[in-house]
Structure formats: C-alpha cells, structure tokens
Amino acid sequence: MHFGQIKRRDFITVLGGAATWPFAARAQQPAMPVIGYLSSRSPDDTAHLSAGFRQGLGDGGFVERQNVAIEYRWAFGRYDRLPALAAELARLPVGLIVSTGGEPAALAAKSATSTVPIVFATGSDPVKAGLVMSYNRPGSNATGINFLTADMEAKRLGLLHEMLPQAKVVAFLYNPKFVVAEGQLRDVQEAARTLGLQINAFPASTESEINAAFRSMAERRILALTIGGDPFFDTRRGQLLALAGYNGLPAMYQFREYAVAGGLMSYGIDAVDAYRQVGVYAARILKGAKPTDLPVLQPTKFELVINLNTAKALGLMIPPTLLAVADEVIE
After folding, report:
1. Model confidence at 11, in pLDDT bands (50, 70, 90)?
2. Which domains does the chain have, with CATH numbers?
C-alpha cells in the first residue's frame, strides 16, 4: 500500500509537470518584435505611404499584427512635438525606430537614442544633417533613404518656368521652421538668377500664415508659385490646393499626390516605392542586420506629372517639349 501511494504521488507529480509544459514553452517563445514609427506628418495624408512601408516589411517576411507590432506616433506637421514622441518610443521595448517625414523626425529619433536602430526617410543630405558619417558606411545606429525632395527646388523652378515663361516673378512658399529651409531658399534664388527670374519668398509655418501668404500673392499679382518640399506643407495639402485653385495660381509641388488632387504639376520621386525601401531596411534590421552595414539609399527615378485639366482651367497651353518629357499626364 505504501508502495502504491508513492507511485500514485509520483504519477500525479509527473502529470502536473506535463500540464505545465505548454505554458513554459510559450513563456520561452520570443515576444513579437515592435517597431516604433515616428512621423512628422499625419496618418490621413500618408495612408498610401504607410501602405508602401508595410509592403516593404512584407517583402522581408513581416506582417503587422501577425509577426510584428507597430507603435505609431504622429506630429501632424508640428515639429515641436517630435522630441517628446521620439523619447516616448525610445522608452518602449522597440526593436527599431522608423522615422518618416523628413529631417525633423530623423533628428528627433537620433537625439532620443544612440542604441536603438533607426531607419530614416529624409529629404536632404543625412551626412550634412549629422545623421550618418557617410552614405556607404553610416557608422552609427541610423541608416535609411535620402528622398532628395529638398534638393529638387531648383529643378522644380526650372520646370515651372518652362510651363510659364511669361512669369518673370515667381513666388516661393517655404517654412522657415523647417531645418533645411535656408538651403531651399538659397537654391531657389540661385536658380532664379540663372533663369533671369525674380523670386518673392513667402514664409509660412502655420495655417493662418499660409492664408496670409496667398493673400499677399494675390495683392502682388503673382503669376506662378513653387512650394518648398516640406512635410508640414504635405499635412496641409488640401489647404494649399484650395488656395491655389481659388486664386487661379499655377503651382509646382513636390509629390504626385498634389497633381492627382488638382495641382498643376509636380516633380519628385515615387514616394510609395521609397517608403517600401524603408520597410525593406526595417525588416533586415529585425532579422539582425546592423544599420552601419546598410548604406544610405538614394532614388534614381523622378516623375514629372502634369494635370491637363488644371492647365485648361487656368487657360494654359502646355509646351510640347514639356509634354514630351512628362512621365504622367492627368486628363
């Protein structure tokens, strides 16, 4: 009887241990990796770009809510919010931080952590911004892609001049609070001198200042406008397009979305594909790659998009030479 009791007790102990095996195994499973996603912009105006990012993650084998979690933080064009948002993400157990919406988000992420890997999307030289040591060997916890949007101001002005050669005075709308604003303004002014144009610069960093800038353009009877590549302006895309339309002002923008939504023309990169590349890099880092071993990327393809309906509404004849080089004409 004593023997049987011992055996029964042992049997119960073994059964109890077996019952705990699945729970122990589950506890030893690695937690789902978390990506901190920091953006200068808003979820609404970047829905198509975020989809491109998730596509890149998917190309690398990661699907949101299946085997990776994403913590989103949005600044809605308010750059002053970014440092706190970046610090909040850095305090979470994130495997990396993805910063989108230009230099303000990237610099905020870099200031928040020197250890968590960062994949950035900027619009100008990340070496000059202090984000990396070099393109081929970033040499820090950050790498990513330079969209070159802020470096295309002179090219955009030249294309606008080709569309409206009669406009000898051109307005340039820029955000003085954007970290590369000074360089943008300088590039536009230098290009204008080469083209024999006069630039009227209008600073605007709030919605009310955008409204005031357009009122001033109307008062001065400006005939053409180029808008600086700036994430803040992207969050106010509807406002900019409405004001340009109301004032009958031909305008050049940085991304295709503007031309699709009724803007006259745009010149810039395929932003969706660029965000996909950000997702590809994020997936590689989740798999163990180090940012310093991933060279900073640059786009090689740029798109000129012209909205023919808007041109007709403005009474403009598109020069055949411009039509010939357009990548897309919206009718």
Report:
1. very low
2. 34-148+270-301 (3.40.50.2300), 150-268+303-330 (3.40.50.2300)
Query: Up-side HSE of residue 122: CA atoms within 13 Å toward CB?
Result: 31
Alpha helices in the chain (DSSP H): 2-28, 47-59, 82-91, 103-112, 153-163, 181-195, 207-219, 231-235, 237-246, 256-260, 271-286, 308-313, 320-325
| Cβ atoms 106, 239 nearer than 8 A | no
Between CA 122 and CA 54 the distance in angstroms is 18
Amino acid at 152: M
Q: At what angle do helices 153-163 and 181-195 cross, to 10 degrees?
A: 40
Residue 151 pLDDT grade (very low, low, confident, very high; cuts 50, 70, 90): confident
Nearest by Cα to 254 from 226, 282, 288, 218: 226
Give yes or no for a contact between 41 and 105, defined as CB atoms under 8 angstroms apart: no
Rounded to an integer, what distance in angstroms lies between the CA atom of residue 168 and that of residue 23?
74
Sort strands 302-307 and 265-269 into parallel, antiparallel or unpaired.
antiparallel
Among 12-21, 153-162, 310-319, the minimum mean pLDDT is found in 12-21
**What DSSP designation does 69 have?**
E
Question: Which residues, 6 or more positions from 320, have their beta carbon under 8 angstroms from its beta carbon?
Answer: none
Distance CA 92, CA 33 (A): 11
Q: Are 140 and 259 in contact (CB under 8 A)?
A: no
pLDDT digits (tens, 9 = 90+) for 81-132: 999 999 999 999 999 999 999 999 999 999 999 999 999 999 999 999 999 9
Predicted local confidence at residue 272, as pLDDT: 94
Question: What kind and span of H or E run contains 146?
Answer: strand 142-146
